[in-house]
Amino acid sequence: MRSVASLFVSRWDVAVAHKVPAELRNTLGIAVSKQSYEAYRDVLESDRFQRLTNVGALARDGGDANAVLLAYAKAGIDLTALAAQLQCDGATGFVASWRELLAAIDAKSKVLA
Q1: What are the residue ranges spanned by the domains of the chain?
Q2: Under a CB-based contact definition with an 8 Å cutoff, are residues 86 and 11 in contact?
Q3: What residue ranges of the chain have pLDDT lower than 70?
Q4: 7-18 pLDDT per residue, tens
Q5: What is the rounded distance in angstroms from the CA atom of residue 54 to the CA atom of residue 34?
Q6: CA dist., res. 1 & res. 77, Å (int)
Q7: Is residue 35 within 8 Å of 62, Cβ to Cβ?
Q8: What residues contact residue 26 under an 8 Å CB cut-off, 6+ apart?
Q9: What is the pLDDT of residue 60?
Q10: pLDDT at 57
């Protein structure tokens, strides 16, 4: 089974921009991305990924993601709650887009009929 994961990196930073110290701004999205990649690699260890690693794919350990995420937690950001909110917002946006697409198809089919 093939799948795609979508992560809106900028939404993380926008959601906390005015809640964290200046030195943390614009680093959360990348840290979450790195942590997501680390989890992905933990689940998907395979020959395919070994071949990618051999040709220079991202480091398995996620870089400094854990340290950056800890800094956000210390700054008072509930990353679990933020993740849930961003997921909800994203799903709502996709549903709206889907409905717009169906409406456009319906309108076009009426014109063509």
Answers
A1: 9-112
A2: yes
A3: 1-3, 57, 59-60
A4: 889 999 999 999
A5: 19
A6: 35
A7: yes
A8: 13
A9: 61
A10: 65
Q: For residues 113 and 104, what is the distance between their CA atoms, to the nearest angstrom?
A: 14
Give just the sign of the alpha carbon dihedral 12, 14, 16, 21: positive
Q: What angle do CA 64, 68, 70 make, to 5 degrees?
A: 120
Q: How far apart are CA 45 and CA 105, in angstroms?
A: 41
How far is the C-alpha of 38 from the C-alpha of 57, rounded, in Å? 12
Distance between CA atoms of residues 75 and 97, nearest Å: 35
Q: Which amino acid is at 43?
A: V
**How far is residue 100's CA from residue 91's CA, in Å, rounded to a whole number?**
14
